[in-house]
Amino acid sequence: MLRTRLNDALKAAMKAKDELSVSTLRLILAALKDRDIAARGKGNKDGIPESDLLGLLQSMIKQRRESIAAYEKGGRMDLAQQEAGEIAVIESFLPQQMGDAEIADAIDAVIAGVGATSLKDMGKAMAALKQQYAGKMDFGKASALVKTRLS
Predict the structure, then answer these.
(1) Which of 4, 20, 57, 103 yields a CA-CA distance of 20 to 30 A from 31?
(2) For the chain, what are the domain ranges?
(3) Long-range contacts of range 19-25, CB-CB < 8 Å, 24 or more positions apart?
(4) Smallest Cα–Cα separation from 55: which of 111, 150, 135?
């Protein structure tokens, strides 16, 4: 389970005195705790499911990539490098990402599976993709491909 891996990695990073990993893992666990508390308020006693946790990790990576672009634009290479290090730590907990050909095949299968025929069906197709491929696919790329296929 991913939660266990995160906690074990935090302990190992603390023992190894790896400050970047410790701070990044603490950020992940804090965000996870916030989402778990919100989920408990909605009646889910176990917190968020693993697929939502993978989505959380992907959104954290996306935020850091945006920060890197801003830091590089502002000439703060030291902060950009720190963000890149955090991305590496976060990515180590994600499953292997799908390649472009695999994404295209998955999109074709999902479009056929949900019976999507026009842009009005894009929401159904994206929801199915997110449910089946959480953490394995870049949904920014997938969204553009789905839109192209359905238009």
Answers:
(1) 103
(2) 2-91, 100-150
(3) 20/82, 20/85, 20/86, 20/89, 21/89, 23/86, 24/85, 24/86, 24/89, 24/90, 25/89
(4) 135
Q: What is the pLDDT of residue 114?
A: 87
Q: For residues 139 and 57, is the Cβ–Cβ distance under 8 A?
A: no
Which pLDDT tens digit goes with each residue over 10-35? 999 999 999 999 999 999 999 999 99
Q: How many CA atoms lie within 13 A of 75 on its CB side?
A: 0
Architecture of 2-91 per CATH?
Answer: Orthogonal Bundle (1.10)
pLDDT of residue 43: 81
Q: Are 147 and 122 in contact (CB under 8 A)?
A: yes
Written as six digits, the tokens of 61 are: 């990576």
CATH number, domain 100-150, options 3.30.390.50, 2.130.10.10, 1.10.10.410, 3.40.50.1970: 1.10.10.410
Instruction: Identify residue 25 by its one-letter amino acid code.
Output: L
